[in-house]
From TrEMBL:
<keyword id="KW-0813">Transport</keyword>
<feature type="transmembrane region" description="Helical">
    <location>
        <begin position="322"/>
        <end position="341"/>
    </location>
</feature>
<protein>
    <submittedName>
        <fullName>Uncharacterized protein</fullName>
    </submittedName>
</protein>
<feature type="transmembrane region" description="Helical">
    <location>
        <begin position="473"/>
        <end position="492"/>
    </location>
</feature>
<feature type="binding site">
    <location>
        <position position="74"/>
    </location>
    <ligand>
        <name>Na(+)</name>
    </ligand>
</feature>
<feature type="transmembrane region" description="Helical">
    <location>
        <begin position="353"/>
        <end position="379"/>
    </location>
</feature>
<feature type="transmembrane region" description="Helical">
    <location>
        <begin position="127"/>
        <end position="150"/>
    </location>
</feature>
<dbReference type="InterPro" id="IPR037272">
    <property type="entry name" value="SNS_sf"/>
</dbReference>
<feature type="binding site">
    <location>
        <position position="361"/>
    </location>
    <ligand>
        <name>Na(+)</name>
    </ligand>
</feature>
<feature type="transmembrane region" description="Helical">
    <location>
        <begin position="512"/>
        <end position="530"/>
    </location>
</feature>
<feature type="transmembrane region" description="Helical">
    <location>
        <begin position="415"/>
        <end position="435"/>
    </location>
</feature>
<feature type="disulfide bond">
    <location>
        <begin position="187"/>
        <end position="196"/>
    </location>
</feature>
<keyword id="KW-1133">Transmembrane helix</keyword>
<dbReference type="GO" id="GO:0043005">
    <property type="term" value="C:neuron projection"/>
</dbReference>
<dbReference type="GO" id="GO:0005886">
    <property type="term" value="C:plasma membrane"/>
</dbReference>
<keyword id="KW-0769">Symport</keyword>
<keyword id="KW-0472">Membrane</keyword>
Amino acid sequence: MRSGFTKHISAGIGRSCERKTPGNTAVLQYFLRENVTRPKQWWDKLHEESNREISGAQVKDWLWFCCLVTTDVNFLYFQGEFVKHGGAYFLLVYLLMIYFIVFPVLHLEIFVGQLCQAGVCKTFNMYGRLFIGFGVVIFLMGCLRSAFFVQRSYLVSVHMWNIMRNAESVASCQRPEFKLPNSALYCTSIVNDKECRAKEGAMYFYGSKCINDTQNVKTNMPAAEQYFSHTFNASEGSFTLTDRTQPLPKCLTSILHCDPVICADDRTVLFHSEYVECVENIDEAVNTGLTLQLSGQTSILVFSVQLCDVKAIFALQTYMQALYYGVLTTGVALTGMLCSSSFRYQQGDSYRLACAVAINNVLVNFFSCFLALCVASVFESTPRFGSSYQPRKSGFLYSIGTVPEVLLYKDRSPFWIIAFTLICVITNACTFAGKPLQLLAVKLTKVNLALTAGGAATTCALVRDNVKSHVEYWTAAGITLFCTIGLLLCLIRCHPSVGLPWERILQEMFNMNIFFTMAIMIMVFIQVYGPREFIIDMAEISRIRRHWNSYNSPFSPWHTTMFKALPIVFVTWLLQPSSVHIRQAAPRCSFFSSYKFHKLELHFKDG
């Protein structure tokens, strides 16, 4: 039998049909006829098709959705929370939040989107005219929320322009932009220290010369913090509106170049979409390559053990931050997730897609934390900072500023700095504008997959649901207008008197939007389907087809092993060596961990 979710969604939509909502009766009747009253033979055939081998199109579908939710939050902000809230214990709490709270809601959002085949406004209108107001509110909040990513992308573009001109100056205390008379006296850089040791034999760079006195250099501001305080602080008078809007034409050009793709032929479209997909998926590989070149395994294990604080498990802030970043990094209440899944074919496997998205984000966050440990271990081994310096600040200040400093300290080419920043630019662009390239390149009436993010996704779905002709051109115009308005909102931050309050307003609006949207969706689903059925379907929502067994339930033993056992094994391996004997035990632990995973793999193969 089909799950209670399908039964109650038909009942909820049936009640909407009985109300004869204007403009929706025909759509709802078609929905009931095509999706609820299917014959048994149709469900059996669908079950046979679902048991076939996973095709390349499905894998590509999963990759696109994984790129949709992989943002700069995974690379730049999650690692800071990992450091501040107990290290590996924070990862453990994060995994529990993903499994018990975030993953079921994410699955529910994907399932509803592709089942209703409509955007957020039309989906809520199916439940009745009273609920359409919630859909409109979510749509508007999604568009406003995108302004936060627009501003962040703009700041990264400013940083990109600086490293293109002179990458080494980012991590140096001798930048010409430091116009304040005492700014150099309060700046420290491990790159300048290394130059002093190589040229003059002195240990530290202080002010404008090399010295050996450690009295004044331990508590000074790092070069990355100096750089970002002068570059991105709206209160600094040295950076005018002209300086801040310099990359603006480049951003507009990169957005507007999407429009001519509409007129391209199928061959050009295929090449363009494959190129974009390769660029978007290269981020994990480059991040892994960076981490392997920064430091050794022993020092990373030492610092990881130092970060582990068992008190974090008993702190409420740890659970709140784990839930917040679990929601943020997996695309729950992204608004674009529901709208993007509505472009998939209606009988798509929503459960496997939700699994792929959740696993992808967990892996990316693990790589991000590994990168943070590599960078921190480098600073830990420098004579200047000793054990007093730890990456307690996340975001731009830590990642985009500190990683270039470490790369230059390790004599890496400026190419790696540009590559790392390009990763951040690409993930920001994907978050802000989504992926309108493929959406605009093919006709919406024929494509089965069209992925966008945030406000761009809701714009595409809104055009598709309400425009009957020339859908692709109206979509191009809507996305272009949306991106232009978002970029113009960044100009408010350039004004010294309102720049900092505006940034704080955007941050608070961003945080409020996530949980408010999530609360609205859960409230509406419970109102339509009932609290009992909602809780049941949160656990067994994937059982919407006949003859499916408990293997397909999110809480089956195999899925419990996949989502809980393997991460717990990883955390146990991370915490296993003691802080006293860790240097001697590191090689043995590395072999033991590989042996455990080998046995676990054999166990899975044996069934």
